[in-house]
Amino acid sequence: MSTNTLTRMDLNEAVFSEVGLSRNESSELVESILQKISDALVEGESVKISSFGTFSVRDKSARVGRNPKTGEEVPIHPRRVMTFRPSHLMKSRVERGGNS
Amino acid sequence: MIRSELIQSIADENPHLYQRDVERIVNTVFDEITEAMVRGDRVELRGFGAFSVKQREARTGRNPRTGESVEVPAKNVPFFKTGKLLRDRLNGK
């Protein structure tokens, strides 16, 4: 299975061909979608997209890490991380995906 | 925030667009990402994050209730890695 990488450009192009908007406006809308999702997450809100998945934010507490190369102990500060949980539909589609 | 709220908020900012077009635009973005992963492709959105597919090898699992072994076939699972910019923003940087 060869792997291609899609970027914003591919999403812009898909939006451009789906709706009769200019390329410029299509790319602004794609950006605006990503921005809205990011803003909600930064506010601590989860973003739930039905049949796609859920983006949520979790708080991680401080712990002691170790530099794997030197063995040196380094403190890891408490931080917020974002997680993506794919929907069941996406999981089952991807699971069968490229091999079938 | 759910899909319909995302659509509404984009529609509010773009009063010159029909609501149904905004709906199509938002759906197109998520569909493109899903279709790419179904093909086994990666979607890299700088600053936001990257969607990719990881291969899980077949393994012998066990039914935790009965202790019976079951063959779990190899499968592909969706994976997301947060982009640096968003990770920093989440931590107030």
Automatic annotation (TrEMBL), chain A:
Presence of keyword Flavoprotein: no
An example of a Gene Ontology cellular component annotation for this protein is:
cytosol
- UniProt GO MF annotations: DNA binding; structural constituent of chromatin
User: SUPFAM superfamilies per the record?
Assistant: IHF-like DNA-binding proteins (SSF47729)
Q: Name one GO biological process term.
A: DNA recombination
Keywords on record:
DNA recombination, DNA-binding, Transcription, Transcription regulation, Translation regulation
Q: Share what the entry says about its subunit structure, partners included.
A: Heterodimer of an alpha and a beta chain.
What is this protein's function? This protein is one of the two subunits of integration host factor, a specific DNA-binding protein that functions in genetic recombination as well as in transcriptional and translational control.
User: So what family is this one in?
Assistant: Belongs to the bacterial histone-like protein family.
**Name of the protein:** Integration host factor subunit alpha
Automatic annotation (TrEMBL), chain B:
Keywords in alphabetical order: DNA recombination, DNA-binding, Transcription, Transcription regulation, Translation regulation
Task: Tell me the CDD domains matching this sequence.
Answer: IHF_B
An example GO CC term for this entry is:
cytosol
A GO biological process of this protein is: regulation of translation
Question: InterPro entries, from UniProt?
Answer: Hist_DNA-bd, Histone-like_DNA-bd_CS, IHF-like_DNA-bd_dom_sf, IHF_beta
What molecular function does GO assign, one term? Answer: structural constituent of chromatin
The membrane spanning regions, by residue number, are none
Question: What is this protein's function?
Answer: This protein is one of the two subunits of integration host factor, a specific DNA-binding protein that functions in genetic recombination as well as in transcriptional and translational control.
**Quaternary state and interactors:** Heterodimer of an alpha and a beta chain.
| Family recorded in the similarity comment | Belongs to the bacterial histone-like protein family.
Q: What is this protein called?
A: Integration host factor subunit beta
Q: Which organism is it from?
A: Halocynthiibacter styelae
